[in-house]
Amino acid sequence: MKIDLSVTVTEEILQLMSSMTATGQIPPVVQFGHIGTHFDVMNKKFPLENTERRGILFDVSHVKEREIAASDINLDKITEHDFIMFYTGCLQENKFGTAEYLKTRLELSDALITDLVNKKVSMIGIDFPGIRKPAEHFRADQYCADNGVFVIENLANLEILLAAAKGQPFLVHTYPVNYEGLTGLPCRVVAEI
Fold this sequence. Notes:
Helix content is 29%, strand content 22%. The protein is of the alpha/beta class. Strands 2-6-5-4-3-7-8 form a seven-stranded mixed barrel. A hairpin with a 7-residue loop joins β7 (170-176) and β8 (184-192). The longest helix is centred in the last third of the chain and has 13 residues, at 134-146. The termini are close together.
């Protein structure tokens, strides 16, 4: 069974992002690489080995008014090179690109990010706009990138994957567009159970 975890980019989404660019909220070059499901590459090259990784999905949808902490997941399930995903329900509850979606208060704690880096995971995937809030977004993404970890934002259909995987690992296929010089790369992410 294969499940597409990528946001479907529609004309409506492109118009919404274009309107944000026109008002100066999002620079055009940033918009180009950060539409829908994408990597924050932060001046690093995506290794082709990452196109297939073992995936683990953690349900953290119960966390609402605080950071997602290491105690919210079972770190013992994680092995080197895993693609770790977090289901919060954010993208399921709020349409991608809307003000409600972009204003989410969800974020991973710095301690959890450090634990994932220390576990030497390959990728961290989330169903919300960033692993840290806007003021710390760049710093957190750069820290991950400097340690060989890629952050993938705006994963879709994690609720379907959660039900199908039943807590078991699965295979993840990830294919970023082959652009160079951008901080974000649009990508297609597919889970295979």
